[in-house]
Automatic annotation (TrEMBL):
Span of the signal peptide: 1-29
Keyword ATP-binding: no
Family affiliation: Belongs to the bacterial solute-binding protein 5 family.
InterPro entries, per database record: Peptide/Ni-bd, SBP_5, SBP_5_dom
Span of domain Solute-binding protein family: 117-538
Record-linked Gene3D superfamilies: Dipeptide-binding Protein, Domain 3, Periplasmic binding protein-like II
CDD domains noted in UniProt: PBP2_thermophilic_Hb8_like (cd08513)
Protein name listed in UniProt: Peptide ABC transporter substrate-binding protein
PROSITE patterns per the UniProt record, alphabetical: PROKAR_LIPOPROTEIN
Organismal lineage: Bacteria, Bacillati, Actinomycetota, Actinomycetes, Kitasatosporales
Organism this protein belongs to: Streptomyces durmitorensis
Record-linked PANTHER family: PERIPLASMIC BINDING COMPONENT OF ABC TRANSPORTER, PERIPLASMIC OLIGOPEPTIDE-BINDING PROTEIN-RELATED
Localization annotation: Cell envelope
Keyword Transmembrane assigned: no
Pfam families named in the record: SBP_bac_5
Length: 623
């Protein structure tokens, strides 16, 4: 669940046209990643194509792919998981590139343009005809129903679940025919939001191959009962947790995408080859013989392999951007991969130790005033990051962003931070602020904070990035100016995600105070940058257990109302309330790509389309 600047980075929130045309998803006219005067160039093409070849792509540090089942589990939200799954299992809707624009449906998706009716309380989804699974069985609406039954019966175990949203908001799921499904919704929804943030969650799963309660057991319609769906889901999840067996497990061999799995190592290295049984659009048939996604533990190790020519599509850390000319001289091109994202540090409001402190808005305000985002962006990220000012990306400008959201409500100001704490009864002793006025009064420390309690916090931060390490040290230093003692503990990204799950106060595993997983952006939004998955009470990606009744209400308004004022109210309120600590939002990566490898469009949602990649003939050579 991540994300990773000219277009906020990973999920290019295509700006969907308003109400009437939203139903048509006219993203092509108002795509969300534009610069003044036109679209962002998504990558070079041209040359004389040659068929075949292998391309090796370097993955970001410690973000090793570790989940193949297209129903993601909490704690397995690394962005590469979804990107790779989508190559094997065609998404119904997604933020896809089609003729240079981003839309929710195109050549790589099963779904056609959705049709809203009945006052936006019903949506009909047409499916592409003629698509078959690799075992020859047709892909039908039954495969969508299978997915829906599984998530409905197991929603608490689904990483994309947020209370009140899919599947809660579907009153009845109807299979109209083999290639049409219809969702009867619990109420009228904003078509912009529902298509971008709900229909993109749907998947087609091979019901005829997966709907068994036991390994080797009879395949039937078990998913059509709640108990049966739970049993089937438990079996599939058990297989998905066996990372070392992905390459040999017959479950994962039934695919309908342009690629199939050739290998998935415990280390996270994934190899895919063309699916020779692919029956989707001809334009989606791969040109390459093989693609290898290669993980790295650190940016430095990737940089060394890149310099030696060990990867065809890699990246350089911002700290060495001045050396990009050296790669260009060796036949590579550089291309910043920008996206649609926000970057932040999660506060754990249920932390066994610091929960009462996190619950105080004045403390969160003081801490935000101690984050020098501009200096971090300019110095540590070498200008490849921009400040995050709230839950709606600031760049590029979009219809989702109000004028108020473009202003930094909490600029770096040490004296203001110190004043906020002193006004509420904190005094710095031996470098650490301590509560000297416990209680709930306007000038007191706040509920649950004991007398002499120190303002000491622990932060889990992902490892593998020099920039992140330096940023955390800068944060530690600046927080100390307000008397806040921060201890930083670095872990691999997947470990941080696994240890930063929603929890209840005093339960085992709820002893963490803060968490950072934003080296390449913390959250890549769906096309509509709403916050139901992040900030709604009880949402699965609400890792810090944030809960605010007003926030819940205005988030629902974004879901229901096509009026853009609802989005503006949401963005302005959450920017002020600080459910998380806003941090500089870096470009996903500064890509370094072989000049003869073409067709790479760096989708800001951080998904890949290697079926579009191809090598071109070099002068005086066949390859």
């Amino acid at each position: 669940m991540r994300s990773r600047r000219s277009c906020p980075r990973a999920r290019r929130r295509a700006l969907i046209a308003a109400a009437a045309s939203v139903a048509a998803l006219a993203l092509t006219a108002v795509t969300g990643c534009t610069k003044e005067g036109g679209r962002v160039d998504m990558g070079p093409t041209g040359g004389t194509p040659v068929e075949g070849g292998t391309a090796t792509m370097a993955l970001q540090p410690a973000a090793t792919p570790n989940w193949i089942f297209p129903i993601g589990a909490p704690g397995y939200g690394a962005s590469y998981n979804y990107g790779i799954q989508s190559l094997l299992f065609m998404p119904v809707y997604d933020a896809v590139q089609d003729k240079g624009e981003l839309t929710t449906h195109g050549p790589s998706t099963l779904g056609g343009k959705p049709r809203f009716s009945d006052g936006n309380k019903t949506v009909t989804v047409p499916l592409r005809e003629g698509v078959k699974w690799s075992d020859g069985k047709p892909v039908t609406s039954r495969d969508i129903e299978f997915w829906f039954n599984l998530v409905k019966a197991n929603k608490a175990s689904w990483g994309n679940y947020s209370v009140g949203t899919m599947p809660d908001n579907v009153k009845r799921f109807e299979t109209v025919d083999d290639h049409t499904v219809r969702l009867h919704l619990s109420r009228a929804y904003n078509p912009d939001w529902f298509t971008a943030n709900q229909l993109t969650l749907m998947r087609a799963l091979p019901q005829h191959a997966w709907d068994a309660r036991t390994d080797g057991g009879e395949v039937g319609d078990w998913d059509r009962t709640k108990d049966g769906a739970k049993t089937v889901f438990a079996r599939l999840t058990r297989h998905a947790k066996s990372l070392g067996s992905y390459g040999s497990d017959p479950l994962w061999k039934t695919v309908n995408g342009p690629w199939k799995l050739a290998g998935w190592r415990d280390s996270g290295q994934v190899t895919i080859v063309p699916n020779e049984k692919y029956t989707g659009p001809t334009s989606q048939r791969p040109h390459l013989d093989k693609v290898v996604f290669k993980p790295f533990t650190t940016a430095d190790s990737e940089y060394n392999v890149l310099r030696s020519g060990g990867v065809d599509y890699g990246y350089i850390p911002p700290s060495v951007m001045a050396q990009k000319e050296k790669f260009e001289e060796k036949g590579y091109r550089t291309d910043p991969w920008e996206g649609w994202a926000a970057t932040y540090i999660v506060y754990n409001f249920n932390s066994t130790h610091a929960g009462p402190m996190m619950d105080q808005l004045y403390i969160r305000r003081a801490m935000q005033h101690l984050v020098d985002q501009k200096a971090m962006s300019d110095v540590i990220w070498q200008g490849s990051a921009t400040p995050t000012l709230g839950p709606v990306p600031v760049t590029p400008k979009s219809q989702y962003l109000s004028e108020a959201m473009e202003k930094n409500q909490y600029p770096f100001d040490v004296k203001k931070a110190q004043r906020l704490l002193s006004e509420h009864g904190w005094r710095t002793v031996d470098g650490t602020a301590r509560c000297l006025r416990p209680g709930t009064g306007a000038d007191a420390c706040g509920k649950g904070i004991a007398k002499n309690a120190p303002l000491e916090l622990t932060l889990l931060s992902q490892s593998g990035s020099t920039e992140t390490t330096n940023m955390m040290q800068e944060l530690k230093s600046s927080l100390s100016k307000g008397g806040i003692d921060l201890t930083v503990r670095q872990q691999p990204l997947n470990s941080v995600l696994g240890n930063s799950v929603p929890c209840k106060a005093k339960d085992p595993g709820c002893d963490w105070d803060m968490s950072f997983f934003g080296t390449a952006g913390s959250w890549y939004y769906p096309l509509n940058p709403s916050g139901e998955q992040l900030f709604s009470t009880g949402a699965s990606a609400n890792f810090g257990n944030y809960s605010d009744k007003k926030a819940d209400r205005i988030i629902r308004a974004v879901q229901y109302s096509p009026d853009m004022k609802a989005m503006h109210a949401y963005g302005e309120y959450l920017a002020e309330q600080l459910p998380v600590m806003w941090m500089p939002n870096p470009a996903y990566q500064v890509s370094v790509i072989r000049n003869d490898l073409r067709g790479i469009g760096q989708n800001p949602t951080v998904t890949f389309a290697p079926q579009d990649w191809y090598y071109v003939k070099k002068k005086g050579a066949d390859k």
